[in-house]
Fold this sequence. Notes:
Chain A is of the alpha/beta class. Chain A has helices at 3-24, 29-34, 36-46, 70-80, 120-133, 152-163, 184-188, 193-199, 212-224, 258-270; strands at 61-64, 140-145, 169-175, 178-179, 182-183, 203-208, 230-235. In chain A, helix 6 links the parallel strand 2 (140-145) and strand 3. Chain B is built from 13 helices and 14 strands.
Amino acid sequence: MTxxxxxxxxxxxxxxxxxxxxxxxxxxxxGSLSCTDLVTALYFHQMRHRPEQPDWPxxxxxxxxxxxxxxxVYAALARAGYFPREETLSLRKLNSRMQGHPxxxxxxxxEASTGSLGQGLSVAVGMAxxxxxxxxxxRTYCVISDGECQAGQIWEAAMSAPxxxxxxxxxxxxxxxxxxxxxxxxxxxxxxxxxxWRAFNWNTLEIDGHSFPAILDALQAAExxxxxxxxxxxxxxxxxxxSFMENRWEWHGKAPSREEGxxxxxxxxxxx
Amino acid sequence: MSATATRVxxxxxxxxxxxxxxxxxxxxxxxxxxxxxxxFSRKHPERFFDVGIAEGNMVGVGAGMAxxxxxxxxxxxxxxxxxxxxxxxxxxxxxxxxxxxxxxxxxxGIGEDGYSQMAxxxxxxxxxxxxxxxxxxxxxxETRGAVEYIAQHDGPVFLRxxxxxxxxxxxxxxxxxxxKAVVLREGADxxxxxxxxxxxxxxxxxxxxxxxxxxxxxxNVHTLKPIDTxxxxxxxxxHGKIVTVEDHGIHGGLGSAVSETVAELGRGxxxxxxxxxxxxxxxxDGLYGKxxxxxxxxxxxxxxxxx
Lengths: 272, 307
């Protein structure tokens, strides 16, 4: 898929995210929009997967550790053909498969139920480890948030992946610099975060998380790295693509009103 | 009567099962010589993963491996692994990941190490989680059967094991039946329901009661979830006098599970014998004597139900 095609899909996914959140009346736009390009690159370029055979044993695995940003993943899975797009509008409604945070039993196209921050990377380590132990060559990808790197378990997982030689694991940190209550640097800074991952023996890269050429190059480099896991620190913008949401912590966990949603979609479609 | 620590039988059994079931993997958190996974680590090194002293990560890694088709036994002291309750809640129970959580060093019976290493809340915590089964075998043959069963049980299980040796209470031909209480001794006046390490004291309590002319039934409840409601209802509806005994706090464990069933039935009376405070260092018998789990304590509780 070409870069312009990926950019077009990412734009569609952002529109879907806004529409889903407007219908739901709640949810997390900021982080969903900041990780949209990463999720798009994974599902529409990098990962081996079969929408027509979701349980294909050799599929690459994806764990969204920052589970609250699942609207971006629902939208991507619908666009990829896993299920009808209309269903995404049932997000967060009673009896919907589109849970507020991913639930693999209600919705089997996600690999793991997540939503308690700090835990997803451990689960991804387990999937990668099972692949190694079982002689499988699938790769495991995990998107983590910046805020959840404040949790100790992230660093337990960080310590274990190189120890187990998991060159089949690639984590992407969605570094939008904002968490629920404010700036990451004000709440509990992660810096120097690249050095931290390097010190834990990860292959580390830092990229613009909204540049598809950069994302694809980094994912390619990670795949070609055969000495342990790779961490791609992705510099992103919270609320990316919607001017009134960008870099505003207020949009971490608040859905746009119908009117705000229309403005957001207008901006995304027509470039503001 | 010979005696074995149930953790030892676990270690032998999981090692043997892994010879033929190549999906079995074992994770440990730097306690392999205590959880008895050491033998597994040497016999099946390619399927043994020590995560270091990082039980939260172990829970998540185990869940990830299970979601990718493996059968992980994740092992530590019960208080440490169940202490990662929120990780178990999310990564194991909610995912319905086929993880076998093995908690050794259950209860105050571990002795000299003292309270920090004594799990007395673990059954209560694990019982609250949908999808989670809870099993506590009482002797060697039952542990063997329980581990064999658990390896092929489809879903998460918490297996609670002893550090100390426990006396054999079952015959060599004993067959483990998941979810079914086992009557060890018949009796018509009162039922003594126990689980795990306390069974020998319960049998001795039944002897003390017999000397007082009281006929006590002795029952081993190895499966704490799902609890054998059919059996509990049957005794609640007959003589209706039940004493529960466990090396666990009286909140959340066997006593609670039995009380819940009896309360909903609206018939029968229950007296709970269990741990009610933070225990201390000491020897097992001394601790059971001081904290209310001796044969004498159990027989007194039964007498109180006699009116």
